[in-house]
Amino acid sequence: MILQALYEYYQRKAADPESDIATEGFEKKEIKYIIKIREDGSFNDLIDTRENKIGHFYILPKSVGRSGSNSWQTAFLLWDHYGYVLAFPRDDTIKAIDMAKKQNEAFINRIRNLPGEVRVDKGINAILNFYNKNQQEKVIKHPLWKECSSIPGCNLTFQLESDQCLVSERELLANFISNSISQTNQEEANKPPIEGYCLITGKKGVIKRTHTATPIPGSKSNAKILAFQKNSGYDSYGKEQAYNAPVSLQAEAAYSTALKTLLDKNSQNKLLINDITTVFWAEKKPAMYDLEENFKWLIDDSPKDDPDKGARAVKGLFDSVLSGKRTIDEGNRFYVLGLSPNSARISVRFWKVGKVSDFEDNIKQHFNDFEIVRGPQEPDYLPLSKILRATALEYKIDNVPPNLAGKVIESMLDGTPYPDSLLNLDMNRIRAERVVTRTRAAILKAYFNRYNRFYNKNEKEVLMSLDKVKNDIGYRLGRLFAVIEKIDEEGGAGTVRERFYGAASTSPGTVFSRLLTLKNHHLAKLDNVGRRVNFEKEICEICDEIQDFPSHLIMKEQAQFAIGYYHQRQDYFKPKSDNK
Predict the structure, then answer these.
(1) Rounded distance, CA 533 to CA 538, Å?
(2) Nearest Cα to 227, choosing from 245, 210, 250?
């Protein structure tokens, strides 16, 4: 299903004249330096394509997998790293120098072995003359070479002085690659093709033996979403590696190109949270609200140059649901694929398929569940990355447990309860720091409401703001603690929270008698008599429903304590007219 959806995405993009997806036999790769040569093969210049240390991306002949002791024999066509292109070793050891020489010979032979009708191209001819005239030395003497060679595995390619395009983009070569299967894998091209029915297209064709690497952040460069080991338990019925799960050359090229496009550095269909790389796409471009375009900003932080992008994405979603515009796309499916690195492979952490409208409803519900009273300067909506950081030490996303992000995204998309680990981590940070922020309180509210709704629990909903009729003991005690803290602050002390929050929220029976005594002391310091009376009334109203101070609160009661505390604190910041 995943491969089929990726294959369909490739077909959709290939049919779009405005798309820059690589066609069959090509891929989009970053090239940081270009070797510019004249038609006679002489070296002209070394061009740095980088902006902010990121090189320009070009459509190049597709790379092929290479591993093992003989990997040097496999060179990419017309582009590769400086070992292959210039015989420049990665270090000064004899082994590295010999390896670079062998790689360079393989690279040159790959070009020399092109058919005669391709070698007549003046670009190909110029490159061969470049090597015949031993122009590599002039590149290495160029002023930019020191910086180029300092980049591990820096890729280079060629361009004619008189051209705007790369040699690999010249029409004759591009047509040759498009019409040939030899670019798919040199090793396979030397073996008799094996035909079979493709699992993706259902059509008979030549089967791919090994699939293209599609690395993600944190994985090895040759990591694949579909990997098969040789001579392992995966072999059966005399079939090795991918012949056991037949995918045709064309379908493999299409799905791997689609996945690489989604994983591209500049892709807007990708987001990275913790170690999970999530890619997403729609079956067809939505006619109204574009979930594919906005999904990233519904989850991730807004870019620094456009801090309101996330808020606009959420607002657009709410508007589309309310206006009914999205009904036009009822049949359109949406795909979300979560990947994480795993040794030499890529693990599928989650895979979600659903109608665009269903995902929109669930995402809207997610933001409704996280809605809670807040200050006027705080953003309207909480992106997922901010929610996760609120549960982590020092608010660092790296300190979030690896599985949490995937589980929360799944809950968000499926409309299911949030994981217990989200509640537990949130409570751990509140207890450790004794600080209940808007995000932390929103996590608790969302957790309880979604859990009660999903399991049809007949419990009172946690409201957005102060709920004076809520009788939950934890909630009431949290409110009472907030009032005592406020009296403490206005009385000039302001240390109650730091000293007593932990004990008050876990074992109230041991501390509240002392807190109420201290309260009387601080209350006496207030000069405003009316203010003293109001505080006393508030405490009486809260304590009216408290029969006893329990010796211990369980986790969920502690969470209710935090919500009650946050609601009561926020109520003090409301305009006076609202408090009447």
Answers:
(1) 9
(2) 210
- Spatial neighbors of 166 by CB under 8 A, at least 6 apart, are 31, 34, 58, 60, 78, 157, 158, 159
Q: Could you give the CA distance from residue 110 to residue 132 in angstroms, rounded to a whole number?
A: 15
Q: What is the DSSP string of 266-323?
A: T-SSEEEETTEEEEEEESS--SSS-HHHHHHHHHSPPPTT-TTHHHHHHHHHHHHHHH
User: Which residue matches tokens 């009296």?
Assistant: 487
Question: Which amino acid is located at 500 in the chain?
Answer: F
Question: How open is the CA angle 267-371-418, to the nearest 5 degrees?
Answer: 70
DSSP letter at 3 equals: H
Are 385 and 300 a contacting pair, CB within 8 Å? yes
> How many Å apart are CA 495 and CA 492, to the nearest integer?
9
CA 333 to CA 12: how far, in whole Å?
13
pLDDT confidence band for 190 (50 / 70 / 90): low
Structure tokens at 559: 């969470």
CA 352/CA 446 separation, integer angstroms: 22
Between CA 580 and CA 578 the distance in angstroms is: 6
DSSP conformation letters of 177-197? HHT-STTT-HHHHTS---EEE
Looking at residue 364, its amino acid is K
CA–CA separation, 519 and 305 (whole Å)? 48
DSSP category for residue 141 = T
Residue 188's pLDDT band (boundaries 50, 70, 90)? low
pLDDT band at residue 333, thresholds of 50, 70 and 90? confident
Q: Regarding predicted confidence, which is higher, 52 or 184? A: 52
**Taken in order 427, 431, 433, 439, is the CA torsion positive or negative?**
positive
For residue 422, count other CB atoms closer than 10 A to its CB: 23
Structure tokens at 566: 């946050």
**313-329 exposure pattern, b = at least 16 Cβ within 10 A, e = fewer:** bbebbbebbeeeebeeb
Task: Please give the Cα distance from 239 to 246 (Å, whole number).
Answer: 10
The CA distances from residue 297 to 269, 447, 519, in Å, are 10, 22, 46
d(CA 404, CA 409): 9
Contact 238, 246 (CB under 8 A): no
Which of 474, 456, 470, 492 is CA-nearest to residue 552?
474
Query: pTM for the complete prediction?
Result: 0.78
End-to-end, the C-alpha distance of the chain in Å comes to 59
Mean pLDDT over the full length of the chain = 87
Q: 348, 225 in Cβ contact below 8 A? A: yes
Matching residue, tokens 């064709």 = 205
Q: What is the DSSP string of 60-111?
A: EEPP----STTGGG---SSEEEHHHHH---SSSSHHHHHHHHHHHHHHHHHH
Extract the tokens encoding 122.
Answer: 């003046």
